[in-house]
């Protein structure tokens, strides 16, 4: 995959467990497609601030964190980019959290421990969706200019 107009696909990964965040990030980096950039946060407040200031295409976040929970982070990301692709990771799921995740358009909901290949595959799928949206938007703009 090549980024549209040389614009990278920005993926934010939020995990408050430092060891887990480092492990997942380290293993993901070598498995991500060309044009995908991963930024990892272990502080959900810092992630929330970033999501309010920067364009993010994909967010992968832990559900239960002490400062800002994962569902709130997804909502925050959607304020800036309504089409953000979201994946929730959790060690302890509840039916209420699962329903809430579906209500806000979370694409995938994984139970920990996560399989790195699965997460990498979900990032690749999300990046492909982002890429298709970008190409469609550019094609629509080009059509309007031509008429």
TrEMBL record:
- Alphabetical UniProt keywords: Phosphoprotein, Plasmid
Hydrolase in keyword set: no
The biological process GO terms on file are: phosphorelay signal transduction system
Any keyword tRNA-binding?
Answer: no
Instruction: Cite the SUPFAM superfamilies for this sequence.
Output: CheY-like
Question: Which InterPro entries does the UniProt record give?
Answer: Bact_response_regulator (IPR050595), CheY-like_superfamily (IPR011006), Sig_transdc_resp-reg_receiver (IPR001789)
Q: Which PROSITE patterns match?
A: RESPONSE_REGULATORY
Q: Which residues form a coiled coil?
A: none
Gene3D superfamilies tied to this protein: 3.40.50.2300
- Can you name this protein? Nitrogen regulation protein NR(I)
Q: Which organism is it from?
A: Lacipirellula limnantheis
């Amino acid at each position: 995959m090549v980024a549209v107009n040389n614009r990278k696909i920005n993926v934010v990964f939020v995990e408050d467990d430092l060891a887990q965040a480092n492990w997942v990030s380290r293993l993901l980096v070598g498995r991500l497609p060309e044009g995908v950039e991963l930024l990892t946060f272990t502080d959900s407040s810092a992630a929330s601030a970033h999501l309010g200031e920067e364009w993010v295409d994909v967010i992968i976040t832990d559900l239960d964190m002490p400062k800002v929970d994962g569902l709130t982070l997804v909502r925050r990301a959607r304020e800036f980019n309504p089409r953000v692709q979201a994946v929730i990771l959790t060690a302890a799921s509840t039916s209420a959290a699962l329903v809430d995740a579906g209500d806000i358009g979370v694409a995938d909901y994984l139970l920990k421990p996560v399989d790195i290949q699965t997460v990498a595959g979900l990032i690749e799928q999300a990046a492909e969706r982002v890429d298709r949206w970008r190409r469609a938007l550019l094609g629509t703009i080009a059509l309007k200019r031509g008429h």
